[in-house]
Amino acid sequence: MALKSTIFKANVAVADIDHNYYADHSLTLARHPSENDERMMIRLMALALNAWKLQDLVQGDGTLTFGAGLSNVEEPDVWLRDFTGEVKLWVEVGQPEDKPIIKACGKADEVIVYCYSHAAGIWWKGIENKLTRPQNLQVWRIPSETSQAVAMLAERSMQLQATVHENTLTLGNGAESIDIELARLK
Questions:
Q1: Which of 61, 66, 78, 79 is deepest in the core (most CB within 10 A)?
Q2: How many Å is the Cα radius of gyration of the chain?
Q3: What's phi and psi for 96, nearest 5 deg?
Q4: Which DSSP string corresponds to 150-165?
């Protein structure tokens, strides 16, 4: 018998001071049976970091949603599509292989990878030379201590505040907050 995804609900108040974007997002996250809280929360964090692009890239006339991710390798973890279905933003989390990243760069205007965990540095050293060509690719690293702390915020029903200021994301639930400083690798 196949295991089913676990459903999480999150209301995220995004205040992106850097991009003058303020909005509430009501989200449903389906956590794949093989996915842990850390990866799921990194997906949520990636959506919050890029929410401003909903207004900036498609003037609010599009959808910023979670893709099938682990359930379907043909979809990203997060994506932004305009009203015609054109993919404006493709986001992957973790340490994906080079070929799917390059393929995504051909499908979307912009591709962002958020890598995390203690193995992220090793992954990047092994893949960096293969990803020099795509000009529409960004790779960001989240420190493993930070990604583990973000995982502690995971609950089946979440009320979160995400504030972006001076390239730092502060993610909190009212009782705890975590400052997330990302390092750009590409």
A1: 78
A2: 16
A3: -70, 160
A4: HHTT--SEEEEEEEEE
Q: What is the pTM of this model?
A: 0.93
What 3-state DSSP class applies to 100?
Answer: helix
DSSP state of 86: -
pLDDT digits (tens, 9 = 90+) for 45-91: 999 999 999 999 888 889 999 987 666 778 899 999 999 999 999 99
Rounded distance between C-alpha atoms, residue 13 and residue 168, angstroms: 16
Amino acid, res. 21: Y
Q: What would the pLDDT profile of 125-153 be if each residue is shown by its tens digit?
A: 999 999 999 999 999 999 999 999 999 99
Q: Which residues make Cβ contacts (< 8 Å) with residue 73, sequence separation at least 6?
A: 100
H-state helical runs in the chain: 37-50, 53-56, 98-107, 120-127, 144-151
Instruction: Count CB neighbours of 156 within 10 A.
Output: 11
